[in-house]
Amino acid sequence: MIKLLPIIRRSEMNIEIKKFLRLSLRKVRVERKPKNIQGYGLCECGCGGKTNATNKTDNSRNYVAGKPHRFIEGHGNRSCAEAYIVSRLKYYKGTPCWLWQRGLNAAGYGRIGSGLAHRLYYNKYKGKIPKGLQLDHLCRNRSCVNPKHLEIVTNEENQRRGFLGVLNTHCNNGHKRTSENTYTDKARKGRCAICWRVSQKAFRERRKFRRPDFVPITHCNKHGHEFTDENTYVDPKGRRNCRSCMHDADKRRRLRNQASRHTKVIRTHCIHGHKITNINTYVNPNTNKRSCRICNQNQIAAYQERQKALRPPRSPKPTHCRNGHKRTEESFISISGEMRCKICYDKSQLASRERKKALRPPRPPKILPTCKQGHNLTKENIYKTPKGRLECRTCVLESI
After folding, report:
1. Taking Cα atoms as reference points, which of 101, 107, 97, 153 lies closest to residue 130?
2. Disulfide check for 163: which of 114, 190, 302, 373 has CB 3.0–4.6 Å away?
């Protein structure tokens, strides 16, 4: 039997071809998993729950790829985490220390806001810490907040315990740790002084065999003193010095200092041969140094001569003014601190007055006041009554 194929329209075929091409040409993104992914972490709120690791880094949320989340979702907004250890004692059962599960500062101490967690727990369970005193961890675990493991001590005692160690009373070789037997290196670490000397001696012995042609030096190079235990001084850098040579050098230095103190050279003349006297001595007020007054004056005069030579020559004083008037003491006057010709100044002042007068508008004619009858009120035509009123004299005469 012949099978009949289904009839496919051209439009449907184009759609199928487009889908195939889209699937074949599409770039599939492959998500690379970060290396060293930790399985889980503990929630920093102290609940004891486990947090998953992150696959990508997100700076806005403080996510780092490969490291677990700090909090379980919703636990990061808890207002206070002071009593989480007390409520979760089962989680810490069997451990003497109460390990702080939240943030630690750079020194390794538990942190709550801007304060320290172990101080807060001590204040809560044992009372206030006196002013000027500190808390010392007897368990030597800085992240522990157990009040039983804390003791109030002074700053000096806390530092001594930090250098020597309360529990570590002997070094690894069995030497007792005391203040005399403790050597503090540059990193401020307390080391056993006996062990340090032994290690330095062994280092020097090993150094001998590094060179096959090594010849041990038994005497010093300067004076030939033998290097013995009594005559050998080893400085802090490990260099060997002859003790006898050091004593001789100190003795010579002391003798030189004594000689310089007792034998003072008294100067009677300066470098240029001028005699030093009280009158001829100049004391500088700034440095309190004494010098020859004559030499000092000569130096000042020479400096002034050099400055004069550098200055440009002055122009000669003028004998006449700009307009040709002769310059004399009477014809020249000082005006606002400047010497000017009197004749030219008077002319300029007269010209300025004329210019101002020309620019001034003409004055209006004087209009004399009149009375009611039209008579001009001049001085002669004004009459003052006994009551003090001013009246027209002509009108008064006419009325009479």
Report:
1. 153
2. 190
